Amino acid sequence: MYKLRDEATATKILSKIKAMDVDYRFMHVCGTHQDTMVRFGLDTMLKEVGVEIKQGPGCPVCVTTSKEIADAITLARSGVTVCAFGDMMRVPTTIGTLNDAKADGCDVRIVYSIEDAVRMAGEQEKDLVFVSVGFETTAPSTAVPLQKELPENFSIYSCHRICPPILEAIFTMGETKVQGLIDPGHVAVVTGYSIFEPLAKEWNMPQVIAGFEPLDMLMSAYMLCKQIKEGRAEVENEYTRLVKPEGNLKARKLIDDVFVPVDREWRGFPVIKKSALALKDKYAMHDANKVHEDILANTPEVEAEAKGCKCGDVLRGLIDSEQCPMFGTACKPMRPMGPCMVSQEGSCNIAFRFSGKRP
Q1: Residue 66 gets which letter from DSSP?
Q2: What pTM value is reported for the model?
Q3: How far apart (Å, rounded) are the C-alpha atoms in residues 227 and 245?
Q4: What are 39-84's pLDDT values in tens digits?
Q5: CA 317 to CA 315: how far, in whole Å?
Q6: 93: which strand partners?
Q7: What is the CB neighbour count within 10 angstroms for residue 55?
Q8: Residue 207: inside a domain, yes or no?
Q9: What average pLDDT does this structure show over 129-156?
Q10: Helix (H, G, I), strand (E, B) or coil at 186
Q11: Average pLDDT across the chain, whole number
């Protein structure tokens, strides 16, 4: 367990929450928030003063479906160069992983940015596909190269997701009962406040946009408790040092210029309307779904989860990672059965590393 740098302030915030005499359950949708919560023992501290915080579908790699991973594997096994971030390489499907395809001789490469993939495409003749993942935070960086001249052999397989529709889906499904939301600060840096406001109005849901330091998380929990006690349901900004009401206008314009919202499944969820980002028709020559339509039509059917894996339940906030029967036994970071144990932002990986609750 890591030590808090400012224990006095943390103690003061916790004592203020305790004085409210609360019994609340909140949810956040950010892997970095979960890392901070568990790394510093904030989850235990908050439970002691009446606040439980569940992790929702905030890990980009985790919410990417097995079908999308299988599409990338199929492209690689069909002779296309596939570039992806490191966490994507180890996500298991019933037809293997991207690492398995690489081990079999396919041209699969880890990159640190889309610029790496564009450069690699310019250095070869055969087709190259970049598998892009992430929420509104990373979508602008994917959009930037499309504003420039690209190699003809370069295309993007977009797995980008949008934050508000998945939150709406959680409330509509009604499985997880929460009294407040801790909104992801990095998303709000791009989007501003407005995307979260309909949730406050339609669902009477108090929300706080939070930063990523331990005191950010504790202060956000306090602000949510205060809202509820005062009978308010608003979007408040704890992360004032970076988040502005209008967000980043240049980044928002990049998303609007390049992408269009589309319906798509999420891991653990059914099809959610307008919840993902696809390239607009004017970029069809760099859209892997269209450039390689014939190849992708041959992607084998895959199971949504490995048998016994409960990643979907974890992402919906129905169970904690430690409640999955495979946690720490059949499923470990070096031998993951699901993406929540693969990704550094996955709840299971974080729990295994920091919680001290390994079997």
Answers
A1: H
A2: 0.93
A3: 19
A4: 999 999 999 999 999 999 999 999 999 999 999 999 999 999 999 9
A5: 5
A6: 96
A7: 29
A8: no
A9: 96
A10: helix
A11: 94
**Residues near 36 by Cβ (< 8 Å), separated by ≥ 6?**
42, 212, 213, 214, 216, 217
Q: Is residue 240 part of a domain?
A: no
Tell whether 87 and 158 lie within a shared domain.
yes
Write out pLDDT tens, residues 144-173: 999 999 999 999 999 999 999 999 999 999
**Contact call for residues 158 and 84 (beta carbons, < 8 A):** no
Number of domains in the chain: 2
Residues 280 and 348 in one domain: no
Q: Which amino acid is at 354?
A: F
Give the 3-state DSSP-derived string for 67-87, with helices as H, strands as E and coil as C: HHHHHHHHHHHCCCEEEECHH
**With contact defined as beta carbons under 8 Å apart, do 50 and 21 qualify?**
yes
Does residue 142 form part of some domain?
yes
Q: Say if residue 292 is in the same domain as residue 317.
A: no
Specify whether 266 is located in the same domain as 348: no
Task: Report the chain's terminal Cα–Cα distance, integer Å.
Answer: 17
For residue 25, CA distances in Å to 52, 109, 178, 317, 355 come to 5, 41, 5, 11, 19
Task: Specify whether 81 is located in the same domain as 138.
Answer: yes
Residue 271 lies in a domain: yes
Residue pair 289/278 in contact by the 8 Å Cβ criterion: yes
DSSP 120: H
Tell me the sheet residues that pair with 346.
none
102: its two tokens: 């690489």
- The structure tokens listed for 302 are 């895959």
Q: Which domain holds residue 316?
A: 311-354
Q: Which residue in the block uniquely carries the two structure tokens 């052999």?
A: 153
What pLDDT shows up at residue 1?
A: 52
